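Structure, all two chains, one model.
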Amino acid sequence: MEAFRRSMSGLHTWAGVVCSALLFAMFWMGTLSVFDREIDQWMKPQLRLSPDVAADAPASLDRTLQPLLAELGDRSALYIYLPKEREPTLRVGYDDAETWTVRHLDPATGAELTGPDSLAGTGFIFPFHFSFHISWVGLGYWIAGFLAMAMLALLASGIIIHRKIFAEFFTFRPDRKARRATLDLHNMTSLVALPFHVMLPLTGLFIFFSIYLPWSIALPFGGDTEAFFDEMYGTKTVEAAGETAPMASLDTMLAIAEARWRARDPDGTVRPDVIELHRWGDANARVSVQQVFPARAIAMRRQTITFDGVTGAILSEYTAPPVRTAHAWLAGLHFIQFDHWVLRWLYFFGGLTGCAMIATGLLFWLRSRVSRRRGADARFWAMQATTVASVTGIILATGAFLVANRLLPEDASFLGEDRAALEVWVFAMTWVAALQHAVLRQAAAWGEQCWVIAGFALAAACLNAATTGDHPLAAGAAGLWSVASLDLALLATAVVAGLAARRMGGSTSRHTRSPTVAVANTNPEPAE
Amino acid sequence: MISSIVCFALALAFALAGCAALAVSQIRNWRKVMGTAAAAPKSARRTGWALSIAALIPCVIHDGVAFAMLVWPLMLAVAALAIAMALAYHPRILTPIAARFRQP
């Protein structure tokens, strides 16, 4: 048993050292993704509509969408997302020459909501979480999958090596040596939310099963992925007939769909939320009215009714088969698209706990190396710099991302990069700068970067008030709770980061001085 | 809205009480909170488990079993962290709770 525990300890240490930097990035971006739509509203002020607008019955969809549909013509697929509480705008998405394009309309007036372009939460933070924006040969998905497996291995090995789980459940001794306190915190943050920490990587892996286990599709469907998606998701590709025809009313189709679903499900929980238009304007047009994101169910079950675009007659109905529903339930645990504010905040708290777990794990490893008197070797300096850059560095870079969003002018462009791309460049370069800072300043960088985080968080909240006028009181009065909450969260972050920076400001030690100073002290003639 | 606040406040209250009782049922924490060298009473542990599980009930009433099985463990996580922080920085906060289990 002892040998097994030792080997699990070795696994835990090495998996932790190798993977934690990227794991923290995944967990941090995942935690923020809980509120990705709220971040969208903050970063793109043109989308700030009060959710009460969505609550009122929307104006006629036909009238609202008519100008946009006339412009976009008969694309093979056009997706209309009906307004809901977390996203009160009418969203239209389509592929424009291989680029996914999204446009927002005011659901009441039909006016297009234009403004400064930004990738924001759903375009930058959320995809960063599951692919690190590495799309080359899908490498980003594979890295995310590898990290999820590593996380599960880390959790399992952590449980095995932890001897007294219940006896030490509530143990946190900040008065003891830093190394002991750090380990206490690492154990505690892992244990209190252990079901959460296990469930998320596991469900994350399930979401991308078709990437990691393509044979699950190849064998039953003979490699015909289209047949697979048709059966599991009820999608069908539509060929254009080439001749135009007048289209039936979308409002009528919505009403029919709602009535049919309500007849089957009297407490009215099944409502349409996505409309797919295929070859709109063509004689072969199809309209799919779907429910994809149920408000009070975990499973993102899909119900679809497909109408003929010209006559408005029902062509087919689709309900997700049992296997698909089971998968949708597992995916729904991860995607959390249901309406439940308490649970959403609890997931956010769980995510932050996970970030704390990873950060304290890395810190414990660093402190262990210091206490073993390994001294100033290059691997320690490198690991310390990497740790600082991966924890405070990425948080700092996110703060810079938000500040840049408020400062960049609408028509910003530099070296061929548009405004949205420039925001991402600010994020990336700030992250690199944080790494360089950490290499030079070593342990002192913790406190200094905490001050920078506090500064960016405060600046972001103030800039929001200055540039949009939606400070928390005004936003609350206008019913813009997401904007007000985010500003308050930024202010709270500034306070916490400031307190942390003050606590770290005092402590320096021989082992944590930067390598240049240490070398200069021992060697009177500098190498250069 | 009010029913939501009541249900979740009740769940959190049960969770906090349950975690506090479980925490003081451990010898190290009992001694820290009570300041004595006596053993921790068994009733604290039983009550702690009961209260922690009871926190599930308001969650089920409000949302049904499916959502409750997601809300409840995370609610317990919040409570456990809060109690651990209280033990670390202000152990005396838990004295009233521990006092209820003290054997005469």
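Residues 32 and 91 of chain B are 7 Å apart (CA to CA).
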